[in-house]
Amino acid sequence: MRRYAAKIVAGELEPVRRAALGRLLDLYLRLTASAGQATDAYHWFAPADALVSTSQDDAWDWWSHEHANLLAAVSTAAQAGLHAHAWQLAQALVPWHSRSGQAQERHDCQRIALSSARQLGARDAEAHVLVDLAAACHQLGRLTEAHDHYEAAIALGDPHAGARALARLGTLHLSEGSYRLAEDRMLEARALFGALGLRRDEGVTLAALAQLYEREGDDDAAAHTFAEALTILDRTGPLTHQAQVHNGLGALCAKTGELGQAEQQLGLALRQARALRDRAGELRTLTVLGSVRAYGGDPHGAVSCFRQVLDAGLPLGAMRARVLSGLGVARARLGDHTEAVRLHHQALAVATAHDARDLRAHILIDLGDTCAAAGDTGAEGHYRSGLALACELGIADQQRRARRGLSELGRTRSRDPDPFRQQHDHRDHGDDQADAGARSDRLVARGRLLRPDRQHARHGPGEQA
Questions:
Q1: d(CA 441, CA 344)
Q2: For a Cys-Cys bond, which of 103, 232, 377, 398 suits 390, CB 3.0-4.6 Å?
């Protein structure tokens, strides 16, 4: 049919061919709208005029068969000077690229869209495109570009795009371990979404904020904020972000020792992600589930989860470091300490490349645990390095992990028959714990002064962050 259409239109004059191309692009936009309605696609831009009602399975089948043509349609529209079609179609494809994990395709589409929006002088469209281009750069590990695009989107002055950029910039800071900057940006975005009456965006931002609190060890604030996010998302959607909340609740339950509840929450998140064909969400949940099983005494189950993530062949960004170190923990539990150490060092390299300092602290403590289990004298150095970084970043649960590891080493050495070594080690360990504890106390005190009432949501929807 396409070859026949091309043959017929080839003999027509340029205005006729251009009009035909415009109608074809309109068709693609309407089909994308139909598919988006069927799959609960979540994005600021959605073509308003759906063509047909369809099922979720049919929508995903359409995407899997047509996405290469859709990319070509975006490029063709831009080359033909149909710039409104180019940026609109590229933006309509964002949820599909996001959920299928196609970061490079998303990047390439948004590059074209950015050029088209600028050709039209459409500053609001340009700002939104910059947000999605930045998100693709973040997923691809191009962090400097991501920062620059987010800042450029904010500078254009569109309130909605600016709020989206602030929320995503908070997520970027979170991935780098800059928790204070992340919290500030997310709270500012939440206030803007509330002022604009964008409850769905506010719920999504609260879910990200709750993940931040869970990562830094503020479990009470995390639980409260997850509940607040779920209250909004249960009413507004999107379903993909409801699954992310269950993912975060699973991680939180695991930290508090409620492993059965953690498995239940993560199982729910995994089923939702798979039902929605949210590949990226599925891999995030498998990563958390693998960690829960690795630390909870099911190393074989952990290895299975982590292998599924690595075998997916999708760009994981900094999450790859978490997967590799978790796999190292599982291998150590299975007695393969040499392989575990190798995996931890691979994870450290990935975390360093992505400037993910909180992950570095976590991995260093994992490495300390593995070395301690193997009787390696390097364990203490890894614990101390992880503890220093966790204190600097204010990550309470990782500080506790490192101190617990050092304490175990101290008890082991207290049984050493060499009294001089016992005294020397005890003095150094105690001095280090006191210094680290003092640094941690100062950080916590400073955090409370700057952010009172840490047990509740920081700002109401209409307040200034």
A1: 29
A2: 398
**Contact predicate 25/41, CB 8 Å:** no
Residues 6+ apart with CB under 8 A from 32: 47, 70, 89, 92, 93
Cβ 226 vs Cβ 210: under 8 Å: yes
Q: Are 233 and 204 in contact (CB under 8 A)?
A: yes
**Token pair in block for residue 198:** 């964008």
Residues 6+ apart with CB under 8 A from 316: 283, 309, 323
Query: Would you say 230 and 245 are in contact if contact means Cβ atoms under 8 Å apart?
Result: yes
Assigned token pair, 102:
């196609």
| Residues 186 and 208 sit within 8 Å (Cβ to Cβ) | yes
Angle (nearest 5°) at CA 204 between 198 and 210? 130
Give the helix ranges, DSSP H, for 40-122. 56-79, 83-92, 94-100, 103-120
Both tokens of 459, joined, read 């700002």
pLDDT, tens digit (0-9, with 9 covering 90-100), for 397-444? 899 999 999 999 988 877 655 433 333 343 344 444 444 444 334 333
Which residue's entry shows tokens 């409620």? 258
299 contact partners, CB below 8 Å, separation of at least 6: 293, 329, 330, 331, 333, 334
- Give the highest mean pLDDT range of 94-98, 124-128, 416-420: 124-128
